Amino acid sequence: IRTANWVQYWNDLHRNFDSTFRWHEFMAMALSAYTPDLTPFIKRWEGNKTPILRRVLNRTSDSSILYSARIVIPNTGHIIEIVADHVDDEFITTFVPYGSEECEPAHSLTQWTTEEMRFLWTMNSGNLPNKTTSMLPDILMLQLTHPTTDPTELQVYLSSAIGSEIDIDVYEDSTINCSWADISLEPILWLQSSEQQGINGVTEKAGFREVPHFGKLNGPGGVKSGGIMGTKTTDNGFRFYVRMVHNRAADVGKYSVDDYSKYISQTVDLFTGSNKGYSRHLDSHIGLDISYDQSLDTVAENLDEMGASYHSAGDLITGSNWARGVNGLNVEFLGYYDNMKFKKFELTELDYCSQTGFSFPNKTEDATYCAGNWDKDSSKSSDE
Q1: What one-character DSSP code corresponds to residue 373?
Q2: Strand partners, 36
Q3: What is the pLDDT of residues 313-362, one digit of tens each?
Q4: For the chain, which domains are there?
């Protein structure tokens, strides 16, 4: 099954979000972000005739309303969701509540109140352009969701690979036949340390406001371990969540989530081994910075013990282990080498155009990247 076939399959399930659309398992393959005003996005997408799935959330936890708009990222079949606490009156009636088969709690960003999301957006220099301009408001990424048949499996995998326990919270709602788990990783973003205008115009100083999932981080250089890759600007941050969703009420197509998970694992393991080979499916991954947790060498040893294939590549000091994950979601472990397993003369840059995945040892300038027609040349492809 080629990558293009999976993309087409997911797009067929999405049905351009028309009147025949039914919520399916792969709707959880999404990235969710917050912005204060959804109106500019709706106008832009409607103008471009982009199919939009619209939902409204009446949040009893903080008596607020959130408007959710989903679109499909071109050529991927994956979804990006943008939520906001405002949309202009002319669009309000186009948003409908979640159906019972759609597992609303798993898609409602329950980790934050609406006020907290707006605060974090503001403190990260969120910009809301004047509506007379063509610019879109900034968005703040908060959560990645992914479908699964076992919401705890990714947490077990990550904890085993790193050698330390990753935080997880597991939820079940038997009334809608749905369960999900939040795997919290921090920090994904860092707040500026200067005073800024907070919610309702109140001047706040980052790091001093009491907000759940937000505050001082510890560890070398002020960075707490176990964070998704990002660029550190201060020592203040908040958690980013990977939410694994098992929606047993959702529609199941020709290929189930379980089918996809098994296919990806088997295919990656077929073309990738213990620090050798590569699979195109490894490009579908989350990135985890383990610089303050564990060396890449130790993680590789753990992956070997787990029977998870991987390929390590980098310069003489830093690099990444691209590893087969679980549930069809693979993982890039980013960090440092201690050379207890990998010898410096063995390390290479990842070469996407090599069937082995390797370029020449110690010659990073020889790393090459695929031509535009690479996907059409089956004689060079490492896997389908």
Answers
A1: T
A2: none
A3: 888 789 999 999 999 999 999 999 999 998 877 788 777 666 666 665 54
A4: 3-188+237-255 (3.10.180.10), 258-336 (no CATH)
